[in-house]
Structure formats: structure tokens, C-alpha cells
Design brief:
The complex is a heterodimer of chains A (159) and B (80).
Chain A lengths: L1 E5 L5 H9 L7 E8 L7 E8 L4 H16 L3 E7 L1 E3 L4 E9 L2 H17 L3 E7 L2 E5 L3 H12 L5 H5 L1
Parallel strand pairs in A: 1-4
Antiparallel strand pairs in A: 2-6, 3-5, 3-7, 4-6, 7-8
Helix pairs in contact in A: 2-3, 3-4
Chain B lengths: L1 E4 L2 H6 L3 E3 L7 H11 L1 H7 L5 E4 L2 E3 L10 E5 L6
Parallel strand pairs in B: 1-5
Antiparallel strand pairs in B: 1-2, 3-4, 3-5
Helix pairs in contact in B: 2-3
The chains are: A alpha+beta (159), B alpha+beta (80).
Chain lengths: 159, 80
């Protein structure tokens, strides 16, 4: 399980290729790449602030919980911080499991968490100035789906 | 004692990190000292959803502080 916050850009394809390499017990790898979305021509940049040593630990805790819940074999989360431009990758999540359902659902859950509850502070910079952004109501609702749902029977299956 | 501000709090205060030579003994005392220094920051720290972390762990309510503590004030988190 790896969580990495970095200010340098990353290449999603390379991360995915490396994540898949040399695995014999994995039947499914799901990956998600989030890009900085510009709104029209006005968005100049996005600035993401983290609390190093806290943000990565919190994300790691969540990744551990998701791995246990879905019975994952491995997880990789790479998140950019600092200033990014529209079109650049901002987040990469890869999940590895024996079968596809667990990998899909864990990636979905991790992204819902990362988009709404992960300890980041986000600022958008456009031609009119800068403003801090809060999650959309939809992001909170997406994250809540996992609070109420019973965990799958993965742990039972593995006994 | 190190005090860290994140997100919009940093804009309100105009600083990101400060080392206090005479560290207050508790979180409440620290907040009171910051508010005395800067009323706008004091108000911002009292807004709902602002959390405090001592040595990178969230604390609820008041807490005693060691002289070498790192105290961070975290406004509502935006996600990535």
C-alpha cells in the first residue's frame, strides 16, 4: 500500500505499468486518473495544499480501511499538490485484487473519499482572481454511500 | 511551539507558520492569544468546521500543550 503526495507532474501510464508488473496473484487492476478540469477558458490553475505528515497519514488510513473492506492485494495513490494547470493529471488511484468487483468498488470508494474528505485545501485561480473551493453536495453524497452500505462478504470468503 | 495555518486561514492571518517564544499552556489559551493579536483570525478560528491538530493528531475540545508542540488549525477540508 503506497500513498504519495508530490508537486512534480506524473505520467499515469507509467504508474499503471509499474503497478501491474510482476504480479502473479492478482486477477484485476482498476485505475482511475483525475485531471484538472478547466471551466471554459477562464481557469488558469488549481492550487492544492496539503499538511505533509498528516494528509498522507489520513489517506493511508482510509486506503487501509478500503483494502480490508474489499480484500485488496495492493493499492497505489498518487496525489499532486501545489499549482497545476487544466489538463494535467492531479490524482491516480490503482487497486489490485484477485477479482474485478473488489478492484472496481475499492477504487470508486477511494475516489469518493479523496474528492470530499481528504485533508486538502483547494484554490482555483482564474482571470478574475483566486478563490477557495469546497466539495460539491454531490461529492458529499457520493462519499456517504460507503458509510451506510454494509461491507461486502470478502472477509468471510477468505476464511 | 510551532503554529501552522492552512487554506483560507492563511489568507485571513497573512502568515502560514509562526514559532511562539512563550508558548501558551493549552489550546484554548493559544486561541485566545492568537485572537488578541488578530481579531479577524480569532473569529476565523471559531468558525464551524475549523479543527485543531496537535502534533498531527486531531483534538476535540481543549487540550494541554507541551512547549514544543506543533499546533495546526485546519479549516473545512475540500478534498482533492
Amino acid at each position: 500500500m503506497t500513498v504519495r503526495l508530490q508537486s512534480d507532474p506524473f505520467a499515469p501510464g507509467e504508474l499503471l505499468a509499474a503497478f501491474c508488473q510482476g504480479r502473479r496473484d492478482v486477477g484485476a487492476v482498476v485505475s482511475f486518473t483525475g485531471l484538472v478540469r478547466g471551466e471554459g477558458e477562464t481557469t488558469l490553475a488549481l492550487e492544492l495544499e496539503a499538511y505533509p505528515g498528516f494528509t498522507d497519514l489520513e489517506i493511508g488510513r482510509m486506503a487501509d480501511a478500503a483494502a480490508l473492506r474489499h480484500g485488496l492485494i495492493d493499492v497505489l495513490i498518487v496525489h499532486r499538490i501545489g499549482r497545476m494547470r487544466p489538463g494535467e493529471p492531479i490524482v491516480f488511484v490503482a487497486t489490485a485484487a484477485a477479482h474485478r468487483r473488489a478492484a472496481f468498488e475499492a477504487a470508486d470508494q477511494l475516489m469518493d473519499y479523496l474528492k470530499s474528505r481528504a485533508p486538502f485545501w483547494k484554490k482555483s485561480v482564474d482571470v478574475t482572481g483566486e478563490r477557495w473551493i469546497e466539495p460539491r453536495p454531490q461529492d458529499y453524497q457520493d462519499a456517504q454511500r460507503w458509510d451506510d452500505a454494509p461491507a461486502p462478504d470478502t472477509l468471510e470468503d477468505r476464511k | 511551539m510551532r503554529v501552522l495555518l492552512f487554506g483560507p486561514l492563511r489568507d485571513v492571518a497573512g502568515w502560514r507558520e509562526r514559532t511562539l517564544a512563550s508558548p501558551p499552556p493549552s489550546l484554548a489559551a493559544l486561541k485566545a492569544a492568537l485572537a488578541r493579536d488578530d481579531a479577524a483570525l480569532g473569529q476565523a478560528l471559531d468558525r464551524p468546521g475549523v479543527q485543531a491538530a496537535v502534533n498531527k493528531a486531531i483534538v476535540r475540545g481543549d487540550a494541554t500543550l507541551c512547549a514544543d508542540a506543533e499546533v495546526a488549525f485546519l479549516p473545512p477540508m475540500s478534498g482533492g
